């Protein structure tokens, strides 16, 4: 665990700056911004000669990099899809009395770096000394959620020395960028056009050609400036960059400001370069007529509305309060449902690891959160994302010689583009997670319009896959699934992973249950026979689910209990984290679990198991779990709460809520764990508050952690907004919006009316 920022309820702030690579990159990850359309790490605008990951990423813009493998296998993905580091449009080159500002070299004081989560504003300030000159520089930046194509920066320079100083700012858009996470090439952009004026500049780029036939993306960026500095005529530095230069002389005590407004548009929204550039100019004209204050207020007001709906307030524990707000802030910065073509990548807009693509994390972890804090349309868009990529899922199944649809482990367009065989081929439980998300949406919202139409098609095609992927064991007279990887990725190529098997069984059962209610329009599109239905029911009835009667546990997979089973507590400090200390061979042979596997399934179907079953499985598996997946702690916290292991529940909440803030797994330098940002909400609402949906009714069984004095949150449920408050006197429930509703609190009906 490593903490580099102060603990404050609404801010991520530090007053220290260290040039070491790890500390610098950690600060960049922690101060990332996004608005759903685009995002960036908290790297510096100005020159920095030290180590940095200057990353800017655009939603839905990606490139099919070559797959690097030592041995090609039939059915292997042709390419490794990854997010492309976009043209650097925040770049500035600052000189004081002719000397370049560079924090890797300069003498500075009064450093402050502050991410205001309430308003999504990043501010940085310091005093830099250059000879006799002392200048205070303050940088502000935000990515507008009111106009998602808009980035706004403001630089303030104040002379705090004893003599006049000359300040020059070169503001640029630079397409000469590279990706760190690249298999072969590092640069993925070609410049189509540049246009440099005295105080404006445009750059239009396109992703380089690729041999896989995937679409190329065109991106246009235009900058305009508002300042009292004098614009200078300068030559264009090269064919990939445009620059506007501004200069002034500051007397002692004087200050100057420069605003930089950049419009970013992509070919995802415009089908020709001409339409794209025309839209870019019109949007630039539009924002030119508004002041900085007006632009910021429009942005901040939307964030205020988001917090009004979703904020979890905690008193008595500032660390817990900061953690949950950081979770929700980065989650909303990545996705708020405006664009059904987009999804949520594990790193969001904060880094290049995992390629910036969509994983099963969305359906398993993000859907429950968005259901509780946003309009149902947001979650419906996530479900439609999968439906619209069915063609890719057909392709993936066919590549493996199987029927139906296999949704990808990693994707941008529905085609599998992951380059690790044990994941690509074997972690097929994702098909069940996608089916479960349809069920989750339907039972939570009571909206059957998706499951009766597009969702039915998705479920049927997934069911066809499962029916083909299982095999029948004559010896045991059971259906089995061999050669898989479960959620625990520290176990590869295992047979009969309990979680995979039970999801396959459940998906077939659920699909059969919805068929009679499918709309007439979609009935004819399902292409399902009576023989299919009979086969599916037989699989449901005779699916093999590993179980040990002596321990009363569901066995993670065949052979798991034959391992040398010792708890994580038996390991030394030098052993952890395993994925950074042990060989992969040693990890695979060990009993140690990366994240919930059996316990993931129990969390999914938490009301289907007895308290004794939940206790036996938790007591057996949690001590073996190293929680080296960012997705692990939250579900364990919920299960611990369910079992009244309150101290354990709080410990695991703290781990999930502050996973990146405290760099628990020593892997935040390359980006935040955005899909795991769902964990804090899950642990509080499903865990501490005990929220469940049973037979269409909302249930709660709250407790108050010992460290806390109070917590409260608002929850969206079936066109209502309910406020939940828990303190030392007990729990209180208030209907904020919607029709009266009856909820269950610890076994008693509570009527809520406005």
Shape: globular
Helix content: 25-40%
Strand content: 15-25%
What is the CA-CA span between the terminal residues?
45 Å
Structural class: alpha+beta
Radius of gyration (Å): 27 Å
Unreliable spans: none
The tally of strands reads 32
Q: Tell me about the biggest sheet?
A: 10 strands, antiparallel
User: How many distinct helices?
Assistant: 20
Average pLDDT score: 95
Read across the widest sheet, the strand sequence of neighbours is 1-2-10-11-12-13-20-17-16-15
Keywords: Hydrolase
Protein name: Glycoside hydrolase family 65 protein
Brief overview, please?
The protein is α+β, with helices and mostly antiparallel strands and 754 residues long.
What do these coordinates show?
The chain is an alpha+beta fold and 754 residues long. Helix content is 30%, strand content 25%. The strands form eight sheets. Strands 1-2-10-11-12-13-20-17-16-15 form a ten-stranded antiparallel sheet. Strands 9-8-14-19-18 form a five-stranded antiparallel sheet, with no helix packed on it. Helix 10 (454-469) packs across helix 11. The longest helix has 19 residues, at 292-310. The protein is globular and about 85 Å long. The two termini are 45 Å apart.
Task: Looking at this protein, list some descriptive labels.
10-stranded antiparallel beta sheet; Glycoside hydrolase family 65 protein; 754 residues; 5-stranded antiparallel beta sheet; alpha+beta; hydrolase
